[in-house]
Specification:
The protein is mainly beta and 505 residues long. Helix content is 14%, strand content 44%.
Length: 505
């Protein structure tokens, strides 16, 4: 029986094995057929087109969104002013400053950038309600107010192109014109804005056209930028409007208002045209210069009752007092020497010279004088002078590594002459623009990280010792330089201590 069963088991096993092999061969053949079909289908797919479609999807997704950034600072400022050499006026102020950055790039050669700003003092703003200069558009988002309004700080587009070997950029809009070259260090901003901060630091609307000459000349980093701006317009507002209908008012009883037509009062468009040149930049040494011409600078009319004393309720309407030209030449060294020491390799030094020159408007009454018998006379003057006056300023500073990674110490000094005049109304110093000082200004600061680069702190002390009045005023009589030692009510010294925390992401 065993002899019969064993051959049967062997036969069954062989049969089963044969069947398994046949089944396996069939499955392998089917898999080969499927792979052949997949290869044939794959060969029909345009891989390059698929990659291009994927890139378009990614670009479309990125371009359809505005990239937002947050820059929030809370600060405690202590202010002190010495008047007439003896009297002290001081205050302590808490502020919140918020900047919401915007950026979008729908295609490679077109970019939009913008910034919304809110700068508020804790509590109530004590500025007089009749202070017409408190929220001027030149510095509206750069000075603290008593409200939490969001104001437009920047909004512009950049178009990139090439003319042969020369790359160019064209831009229109609300300019990125505060915390510029050199002044970005004290502000703890890694990248400077467009202008040279020594003589231009304010908000305005306009255009710029940049042309890169480094490839054409072989000079590292060379470019030229034409800048155009308008800070004031003499157009009549649209509302209320009575076209062709005389409107009675205290200034002119028969004035006719037409929407956005040129106004009939002496307040012309205040325009600025300038040339910004980067002569050289190899990453360590950077040389920049600018020259500008300002047209129809604004000044205030003063009425006098006896030729010397201001009348009650004097007129402070801004009018055209003349033109102003200016320029600067600045050098910044990122790393002193060549591997002398780690400290010097990480130290930044800069020096800058700037000038300004007035050109008073001829043939127009700017200061109205009423004598004791009612006789009216006129004076044509700019910064208190009927002649062209030249002012100058020099500015030096050093920014050094501190005790930890990423902390920095800074020391700065600047001096301005009697007729020095800058456009630095947007400078972030509550006691007034230090770079506008007609006299000596000193500053020391310490910037340090708390939570990496996202939360930082600053301790800063600023002192301005004035030789002459009018450092922060306009271009007419209010900007007259008078000796602070002999002028009653003149501020001789201004000080500002700031402690701040800043969140950036």
């Amino acid at each position: 029986m065993k002899k019969f069963i064993i051959p049967m088991l062997v036969g069954a096993t062989l049969a089963t094995t044969a069947m398994a092999e046949d089944s396996l061969r069939a499955e392998i053949a089917a898999l080969k057929a499927q792979m052949a079909e997949l290869k044939e289908a794959q060969s029909k797919i345009n891989i390059d087109a698929l990659k291009s479609q994927l890139s378009e999807v990614k670009a479309h997704s990125a371009g359809d969104n505005i990239k937002w950034s947050v820059d929030f600072r809370t600060a405690y400022d202590m202010l002190d002013y010495k008047i007439d050499g003896a009297n002290d006026v001081s205050n302590e102020l808490w502020t919140n400053k918020l900047t919401l950055g915007m950026a979008a790039q729908p295609i490679d050669n077109l970019v939009f950038k913008g910034a919304l700003g809110m700068y508020k003092a804790y509590g109530q703003n004590a500025a007089p309600s009749n202070n017409g200069f408190q929220n001027m558009d030149w510095f509206s988002s750069q000075t603290p107010s008593g409200d939490s309004n969001i104001r437009l700080k920047e909004a512009y587009f950049l178009y990139f192109g090439n003319m042969g070997d020369m790359a160019y950029t064209a831009s229109f809009g609300r300019r990125p014109s505060t915390d510029g070259f050199m002044t970005n260090l004290r502000a703890d901003n890694p990248y400077p804005s467009s202008p040279v901060g020594h003589n231009i630091n304010m908000e305005f609307d306009g255009a710029s056209f940049k042309f890169d000459f480094d490839k054409l000349t072989g000079i590292s980093g060379m470019y030229f930028k034409i800048c155009l701006g308008r800070g004031n317009s003499n157009a009549n507002a649209k509302y209320p409007t009575f076209t062709g209908f005389p409107v009675l008012n205290s200034v002119s009883p028969s004035t006719t208002y037409t929407p956005y037509a040129q106004s009939n009062y002496d307040s012309a468009n205040m325009d600025l045209a300038g040339l910004l040149v980067q002569f050289y930049d190899d990453g360590q040494y950077k040389v920049m210069g600018n020259y500008f011409q300002g047209y129809s600078m604004m000044g205030a009319n003063f009425a006098y009752t006896n030729g010397t004393s201001p009348a009650a309720g004097y007129n402070v309407n801004l009018t055209d007092v003349g033109d102003l030209s200016g320029g600067s030449l600045s050098v910044q060294v990122n790393g002193i020497g060549d591997e002398i020491s780690d400290f010097l390799d990480d130290t930044i030094f800069f020096a800058s010279y700037a000038f300004s020159k007035t050109d008073p408007e001829a043939g127009s009454a700017h200061n109205v004088i009423v004598d004791n018998v009612g006789t009216i006379g006129s004076m044509k003057e700019m910064l208190g002078s009927t002649k062209s006056e030249t002012g100058s300023s020099y500015y030096v500073g050093v920014n050094m590594p501190g005790f930890m990674d990423s902390d920095r110490f800074g020391i700065e000094y600047n001096h301005g002459s009697k007729y020095w005049r800058s456009f630095t109304y947007g400078e972030d110093t509550l006691a007034g623009s230090k770079l506008a000082t007609r006299g000596d200004a000193y500053e020391i600061y310490y910037n340090f990280p708390i939570v990496s680069k996202f939360l930082t702190g600053q301790i800063r002390y600023t002192r301005m010792d004035y030789d002459y009045t009018g450092s922060d005023m306009f271009f007419g009589s209010t900007g007259t330089p008078m000796d602070v030692k002999v002028t009653p009510g003149a501020v001789e010294t201004a000080q500002n201590i700031r402690l701040s925390l800043r969140y950036r992401y």
